[in-house]
Amino acid sequence: MPTSRSCALAPTWHWVREGILAGEQVLAGASDDTTPTLLIQAEEERVVDNRTHDRFCEIRAAAGYPCEGGKPLVIKGAYHEILFEKDAMRSVALNAIVEFFNKPNLSSGNRFA
After folding, report:
1. What is the distance between the alpha carbons of residues 80 and 11, in angstroms, rounded to a whole number?
2. Distance of CA 65 to CAs 24, 35, 47, 60, 81, Å?
3. In a domain, 111, yes or no
4. What is the C-alpha separation between 98 and 8, in angstroms, rounded?
5. Considering Cα of 50, then 29, then 101, then 108, what sign does the dihedral take?
6. Where is 94: in which H helix or E strand?
């Protein structure tokens, strides 16, 4: 049995497979999803494939439901867990999140009403 810390933290093949399948399902349904979406992406991501985020936003835009800003908000220099990054990176993400939730919906005056 491996005793290395990195081995102990590695995902199982089943976990990886389930993650890939879930990502495929999200892309398959992206054109039907009308939920306002802010997608925040780490520039130096090494866990997930940022191209899938880009594709999700492309599908949403083609369906008439673009992601906020039309594409992922890329946090420069950030890795996978953006909210655990340095203050400067984390504050970019948190400010975008607060701004997104405070934005009124043009039809109802409340974005999520």
Report:
1. 15
2. 19, 8, 27, 5, 26
3. no
4. 36
5. positive
6. helix 87-102
Give, as one character, the DSSP assignment of residue 11.
Answer: P
Q: How many CB atoms lie within 10 A of CB 99?
A: 11
Is residue 113 included in any domain, yes or no?
A: no
Q: Tell me if 22 sits within 8 A of 30, measured CB to CB.
A: no
Indicate whether 109 belongs to any domain: no
Counting DSSP H helices and E strands in the chain, the numbers are 4, 2
Question: Tell me, what's the pLDDT at 2?
Answer: 54
- Whether 112 is in a domain gets the answer no
Show the domain range for 53: 5-102
Structure confidence at residue 61 (pLDDT): 97
List the chain pLDDT tens, one digit each, 113 residues: 555 555 667 889 999 899 899 999 999 999 999 999 999 999 999 988 999 999 999 999 999 999 999 999 999 999 999 999 999 999 999 999 999 999 886 444 444 54
Q: What pTM does this model have?
A: 0.79
Work out how many domains the chain is built from and give that number.
Answer: 1
